[in-house]
Amino acid sequence: MRLKNQERVKDFLDKLYSSKRIPNAMLFYGPPGVGKTVCALEFSKGLLCLEEAPWGCGECPSCHHMEHITELILGGDWESISSFEEANGKKVFLYLSGEHPDFVFVPPDGTSLKIDQVRSVKEFAYRKPALSKRKVILMDDVHLMTKESANALLKVLEEPPEDTHFVLVSEGKEALLPTITSRTYQVEFSPLDRESFYELLGEESEDLYKASRGSLALARELKEKKDIVKILEDFLSSDPAKVYRAAQEMEKRDIEDKLLFLRLLEDRIRETFLRKELDYDRFEMMMRRFEEIRAGLRRGLRFSLSVFSLYSIWR
Ligand SMILES: [Zn+2]
Question: What's the 106 CA to ligand 1 centre distance in angstroms?
Answer without folding.
Answer: 22
